[in-house]
Design goal:
The chain is built from 17 helices and 14 strands. By secondary structure, the protein is an alpha/beta fold. The structure holds pyridoxal-5'-phosphate.
Length: 419
């Protein structure tokens, strides 16, 4: 018999195996200073394109003031315990009512963390006779929620309605045998590539198939739709979404999350979400902070307008220079380049050290081999000057990638990796 840890000593996993080259720089980097368009990395000023502070609220003086006052008043402990036991307050309820109204649903339920909340919501919505049909590119929290499911599940090809229909056919036949129902899950915006989920087309399938529709709108909430209510509002199908999820960790620049839908469904979920029933409630300073942020989302459209000015300038500037942004339909701005992992490392080092640009880098196995994805997250706190500097930097790194500079620079790393 083996020691349990043997496999860990042998294999650090698909990402962990790069730790020696990547840790502290490409992964687990330490960005310092106040959250904004400009921060410090390794002691250098960088334009930061890797933070989901879409509306620039993280460091807004009014937000910081409310956060500080709430911390002073409540500390970080209050309320203690799970919502169901001793962690429930009037302000949690007020936040739920305001969130429900904002996303045009009857009721909402506040979650301590988005990831766990998503996992538990999926878990609570389905029983062993039910069938889940979900997009193959779903976020890890959806995949983990589906993993808990005791019944059947089918994936459909990413944003492919024909594939979804095929799987709905299979699921419908199966549900007729089991006596269960069908849950379809999509994201409002797919965070890596920036595509919106095809919510309108999915919702239209309700005419033909019987299912309930659950949307994780982590990146859409606050950034899309006329009022900022997200991808469902943007596509005119908010009413067709049966359970809507968004996190506070992106446009709301905080921690926590919520689900929203019909009151009866929310009432059921609040008694059945294991990650909420058996874990501490969202702390009061975060609840108060969320109320403030929601108020700003509702009452001041200028944050969203500023965001979209930057998104438009960045995305059209990159496209004009011939960069491939794939199929993004949101603020998420992916730039696809061709190259190996060592070339990607040299390129990102050049971007950070010589151009002062900090963005995330994504490589195989997250995306196909031979592709480099530089992922930029524009925010309302960026300026047009930041955009211009970034466009020039991107032209420069592309030239060096194409003329083999990074290949030469990374030859020793390449040799070490191949050995
Ligand atoms: C699509 C999506 N769903 C859920 C989550 C999890 O949210 P949280 O950070 O609040 O746990 C994230 C990441 O923040 C996400 O990108």
């Amino acid at each position: 018999m083996r020691d349990l840890f043997d496999k860990i000593y042998r294999d650090k996993g698909p990402l962990g195996k790069w730790a020696e080259y990547a840790e502290g720089y490409f992964v687990f980097p330490k960005l310092e200073g106040e959250i904004s368009n400009r921060m410090k990395f390794n002691g250098k000023d960088v334009i930061t394109w890797s933070i989901n502070d879409y509306l620039g609220l993280a460091n807004h003086p009014d937000v910081r003031k409310v956060d500080a006052e709430a911390a002073l008043q409540y500390g970080s402990a209050y309320p203690m315990g799970a919502r169901m036991m001793s962690g429930h307050t009037d302000l949690h309820e007020q936040l739920q009512e305001e969130l429900a109204a904002f996303v045009k649903k009857e009721a909402a339920y506040v979650l301590n963390f988005g990831y766990q909340g998503m996992v538990s919501t999926i878990d609570a919505l389905v029983g062993k006779d039910d069938i889940i049909v979900y997009d193959v590119d779903a976020h890890a929290c959806i995949i983990d929620g589906v993993r808990l499911h005791m019944g059947k599940r089918f994936t459909y090809k990413h944003n492919d309605i024909e594939s979804l229909e095929k799987n709905l056919d299979r699921a419908t036949k199966m549900a007729e045998q089991t006596g269960g129902g069908i849950l379809v899950i999509s994201e409002g915006v797919f965070g890596m590539r920036g595509e919106q989920g095809r919510l309108k087309e999915i919702a239209a399938l309700k005419e033909k198939y019987k299912f309930r529709f659950f949307v994780d709108d982590a990146h859409g909430f606050g950034t899309l739709g006329a009022t900022g209510a997200g991808a469902g509002e943007e596509q005119g199908v908010q009413n067709e979404i049966d359970v809507y999820f968004a996190t506070f960790a992106k446009a709301m620049a905080s921690t926590g999350a919520f689900i929203a839908g019909d009151k009866e469904i929310m009432d059921y979920l609040k008694y059945n979400l294991r990650s909420q029933m058996f874990a501490k409630s969202l702390q009061m300073q975060l609840v108060v902070g969320a109320l403030k942020r929601l108020d700003m989302l509702r009452s001041d459209k200028s944050h969203k307008e500023k965001l979209w000015n930057i998104v438009t300038a960045l995305q059209s500037g990159l496209r004009d220079r011939g960069f491939d942004l794939g199929t993004t339909q949101s603020c998420v701005t992916p730039v696809y380049l061709q190259g190996s992992i060592p070339e990607a490392m040299a390129l990102v080092k050049d971007l950070r050290e010589n151009h002062g640009i900090f963005c995330s880098i994504v490589v195989y196995p997250v995306i196909p081999k031979g592709l480099i994805l530089l992922r930029l997250i524009p925010t309302a706190s960026h300026t047009l000057e930041d955009v211009q500097i970034t466009l020039d930097a991107f032209s420069s790194i592309r030239e060096r990638l194409e003329n083999g500079t990074y290949k030469r620079m990374s030859a020793s790393v390449m040799a070490a990796m191949e050995s």
